[in-house]
Amino acid sequence: MKSPLPWRIVTHSVLILVSIACIVPFVLLVISSFSGEQDILRYGYSFAPRHVSLEAYKYLLLHIAEIGRAYCITIGVTAVGTVLGLCLMACFAYPLSRKDFPFRTVGSFFVFFTMLFSGGLVPTYLMYTQIFHIKNTILALIIPGLLMNGFNVLLMRTFFANSIPAAVIESARIDGAGEFKTFVSIVLPLSLPILATVGLFQALNYWNNWYNGLIYLTDDRLFNIQNILNRIITDIQFLASSNLGANAGAAYAKIPSATVRMAIAVIGVIPILAIYPFFQKYFVKGIAIGAVKG
């Protein structure tokens, strides 16, 4: 049964306004990255810049080697971390979704517990650096975000429990398929929506993560794109706040400090925006089904 026309008009209008509110800041971000530095400093950010300038991107081209290397590292870390994370979370969430699994309640409690409490920064740092020895290795960008995300595990558990018919699993068992065969050949192919949803969450986490590089890396050759862009901003702020004489002041004056921040944000977000449309239909379905029950 369709909703009354006035109610549909109101809901559609609200959703359109919310969508515009999400899009407008990004549009302003892109336009500002192509605006003149002096125009922003004098008139503020505008959707109609007085002068179009590429100075921010020209400045970033000076760091093209670092940015290119960081992009390669980020893409590799995101791909490996997402695939391994999905495998671990799916293998852990599936038994928790089975009613015949004897430790189902205990396992779910431990997953939920990790959403409320953590070991703290110092114990975590000591564990990863002194036990796992990941400091100044590429593993420092993968392992800390790899193992678990309690919300994603519960999301996958709920999807497996509500969307995979028990009769299908029972039929596979009657045909002689073991647990692993059933999981790989039956459950995973039927779980593309939740795999795509959780995979997108995991990929976003790896792509946007700069904290692990800040804590565990001192070798800038291993920095990901977020760490490199953050360092560029830090260098600009250092030049702005330091008192290094006339030469430093002249150098800082030539840097489009306001617009380069916008260009850095554009460079960091464009790849994710490019791949998101391909996951959108799975994302919506996975969230809707996976969140039916806690």
Notes on the protein architecture:
The protein is globular and about 75 Å long. It is mainly α. The chain has helices at 5-33, 37-43, 55-61, 64-97, 104-116, 121-131, 150-163, 166-174, 179-187, 192-208, 211-216, 225-241, 246-253, 257-290. 73% of the residues lie in helices and 0% in strands. The protein contains 14 helices and no strands.
Give a concise summary:
By secondary structure, this protein is mostly helical.
Features of this protein?
globular, disordered C terminus
Secondary structure: elements and pairs:
Layout: H1 5-33, H2 37-43, H3 55-61, H4 64-97, H5 104-116, H6 121-131, H7 150-163, H8 166-174, H9 179-187, H10 192-208, H11 211-216, H12 225-241, H13 246-253, H14 257-290
Helix pairs in contact: 1-14, 3-14, 4-7, 4-10, 4-12, 5-7, 7-10, 7-14, 8-9, 10-14, 12-14
Structural class: mainly alpha
**Residue ranges: pLDDT <50 for 5 or more in a row?**
290-294
Shape: globular
End-to-end span in angstroms? 28 Å
Task: Please trace the helix and strand order, writing H or E for each element.
Answer: HHHHHHHHHHHHHH
Oligomer: single chain
The profile of the biggest β sheet is:
none
The chain-level mean pLDDT equals 83
Portion of residues in beta strands equals under 5%
- Give the count of helical stretches: 14
Radius of gyration: 24 Å
Q: State the share of residues found in helices, binned by percent.
A: over 70%
Number of strands: 0
